[in-house]
Amino acid sequence: MKITLLGPAYPYRGGIAAFNDRLAIEFMAEGHDVNVENFSLQYPEFLFPGKTQYNPSSAPSDVKMVRSVNSVNPFNWVKIGRRIRLYAPDVLIVRYWMPFMAPCLGTIMREVKKNGKTQIVALVDNIIPHERHFYDSILSRYFVNAADRFVVMSASVRDELKQFTDKPCAVNPHPLYDIYGEKVTRAEACKTLSLDPALKYIMFFGFIRDYKGLDLLLEAYSKGDFHSKGIKLIVAGEFYGNRDKYMELASGLGVKDKVLWHNDFIPDDEVKYWFSAADVVVQPYKTATQSGITQICYQMEKPMIVTAVGGLAEMVPDGKVGYVVNVNADEICNAIAEFYAKGDIDRFLKDIKEQKNRYSWHSMAQVLLNS
């Protein structure tokens, strides 16, 4: 088939861009003709919360890609829509993750629909954002009305989408993030990251935003007095918000100097070392849909502690690959303590290896084309 992907890809950074790169590679491996319509301008700099939008790692090989889409220029939206309309792919797959993108993507989709040929499939991460605004529903509805059908990665997003449309919607879980390579030995990981191999490590990984609950994890870490037991908390990821409030909280809890802070974007080739060094990864989210961090954990065969929000509990069977707890610092603390007290890493590893077979890129590709 002739397939166009519309959404962020390399050189942009973050899970969505990495996902789109990997999806394009999967379609190519299955014999399809694939091109990616990437952003020339994704976010104006004053709207971007991090240090840079760009990924310092190497580009994916052989993916046909053009940086063409300007998220804030309506004339560009019409131009790109007309170009895709004339190119007439069999399928246009459009990635949707926040209402800010709805005017741009929705307008392009409407232009493409005029060719009467191209099927428009929306791959939706979030239809209702974690951090809400009064205009979110209006913008999301504009996007939704331009799509022919939808694919989502959790039942929670499917249920939210039902508030906007009764068009066909398929659920397929987020595939493994295998683009980061394979796990390495703990000894190699600790040596590479200059970590003490005699200590144990809990890890929070990824961009730090308020909804991800780092404050709850800091509180849980202080309640368990884990530092005195040789258990360190690693916070690996860039702040996408007020850094000072987390530092002040950690200081007030008496753990600021006991946490290993690595608050820069983690390049792709370093990801495997952080996950290989950690004993367990904690996702103390206050709201969620699905999480790419979970899929890195599966790829690196790492137990998880997650909160029972959004689709996280769908992805992390409680007691099999880790623990599912309520959004509560005490419960997070108890789960960490139980993880180390029981020493169930070997049992978790067996179940993780079984569960990870559910999350294939081939399955995602088939659902996007055929659901």
Architecture overview:
- α2 packs parallel to α3 (102-113) and α6 (186-193) packs across α9 (271-277).
- β1 (2-6), α1 (15-29) and β2 form a beta-alpha-beta unit.
- The model has no long low-confidence stretch (mean pLDDT 92).
- Helix content is 38%, strand content 18%.
- It is of the alpha/beta class.
Short description:
The protein is built from 14 helices and 13 strands. The chain is of the alpha/beta class.
Q: Distance between termini?
A: 15 Å
| Run of helices and strands | EHEEHEHEHEHEHEHEHEHEHEHEHHH
Radius of gyration: 21 Å
Please give the number of β-strands: 13
Main structural class: alpha/beta
Unreliable sequence segments: none
Helix content: 25-40%
Q: What do the pLDDT scores average to?
A: 92
- Write out the strand line-up for the largest beta sheet, numbering strands in chain order: 3-2-1-4-5-6-7
Write the layout of secondary structure elements.
Layout: E1 2-6, H1 15-29, E2 33-41, E3 64-70, H2 74-87, E4 91-96, H3 102-113, E5 119-124, H4 136-144, E6 149-152, H5 155-161, E7 169-171, H6 186-193, E8 200-205, H7 214-224, E9 231-236, H8 243-252, E10 259-262, H9 271-277, E11 280-283, H10 292-300, E12 304-307, H11 312-315, E13 322-325, H12 329-342, H13 345-355, H14 361-370
Parallel strand pairs: 1-2, 1-4, 2-3, 4-5, 5-6, 6-7, 8-9, 8-11, 9-10, 11-12, 12-13
Helix pairs in contact: 1-14, 2-3, 3-4, 6-9, 7-12
